């Protein structure tokens, strides 16, 4: 029996030794795995932090660009409003001119827009009623250099000021609204240049 006990004891000793060796190896493997996981975690954390910093910088850059764009849009809208207000004030000054100023302007406009031929000039009902005495001779004197002759028509047109020139079947609308509309872009550019350069 002593031999059997001895043999069992040797088997147990070998098993304990093998278990201790396996346990030691498992602990070393576990420590290596933990160290590797820790390194990977630190590296991943650094990657996430770097990506987060890049994303934050990108977001801030885009937000700043969007704010700058909105600022430029707001300035443009404000400039456009100022320009439109100035054009509207100029238009209103035409309507509020004294009769002398108004019809002096009409003579200048007629000399500019009249074609070198005979025709008629048609006014609004309001302007026809307040034409100065001897306006037709003054008008023809103003357009004479262009080789034109104009007769004041008894007809009227629904226009805001200015006149309509008629040459047979051809009409040229020289009302203030039509002229301002036709030259709107040029006027905008000139007002912009005066105000903002």
Polypeptide structure, described:
The chain has 197 residues and is an alpha+beta fold. The protein has 2 domains: 1-69; 97-196, hypothetical protein PF0899 fold (2-Layer Sandwich), CATH 3.30.2320.30. It contains 6 helices and 4 strands; from the N terminus they run ααβααβββαα. Strands 2-1-3-4 form a 4-stranded mixed β-sheet. Strand 3 (162-167) and strand 4 (170-175) form a beta hairpin. Helix 1 packs across helix 6 (184-196) and helix 2 runs parallel beside helix 4.
> SSE order in H/E notation?
HHEHHEEEHH
Strand-pairing-aware structural class: alpha+beta
> Can you count the helices?
6
Oligomer: single chain
Q: Gap between N and C termini, in Å?
A: 117 Å
Q: How would you name the CATH homologous superfamily of the largest domain?
A: ATP synthase, E subunit, C-terminal
Give me the CATH architecture of the largest domain, please: 2-Layer Sandwich
- CATH class of the largest domain equals Alpha Beta
Q: Biggest β-sheet: count, sense, barrel?
A: 4 strands, mixed
Per CATH, what is the topology of the largest domain? Answer: hypothetical protein PF0899 fold
Strand adjacency order, main sheet? 2-1-3-4
Strand-residue proportion: 5-15%
Mean pLDDT score? 85
**What is the helical fraction, as a range of percent?**
over 70%
Write down the Rg.
Answer: 47 Å
Low-confidence parts: none
Number of strands: 4
Domain tally: 2
């Amino acid at each position: 029996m002593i031999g059997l006990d001895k043999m069992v004891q040797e088997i147990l000793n070998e098993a304990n030794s093998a278990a201790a060796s396996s346990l030691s190896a498992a602990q070393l493997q576990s420590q290596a795995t933990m160290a590797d996981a820790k390194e990977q975690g630190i590296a991943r954390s650094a990657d996430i932090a770097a990506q987060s910093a890049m994303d934050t910088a990108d977001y801030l850059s885009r937000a700043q660009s969007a704010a700058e764009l909105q600022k430029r849009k707001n300035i443009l809208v404000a400039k456009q409003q100022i320009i439109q207000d100035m054009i509207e004030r100029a238009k209103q000054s035409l309507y509020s001119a004294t009769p002398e100023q108004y019809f002096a302007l009409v003579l200048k406009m007629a000399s500019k827009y009249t074609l070198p031929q005979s025709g008629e000039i048609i006014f609004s009902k309001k302007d026809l009623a307040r034409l100065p005495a001897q306006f037709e001779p003054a008008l023809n004197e103003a357009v004479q250099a262009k080789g034109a002759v104009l007769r004041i028509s008894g007809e009227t047109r629904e226009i805001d000021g200015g006149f309509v020139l008629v040459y047979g079947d051809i009409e040229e609308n020289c009302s203030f609204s039509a002229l301002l509309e036709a030259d709107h872009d040029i006027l905008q550019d000139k007002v912009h240049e005066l105000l903002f350069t």
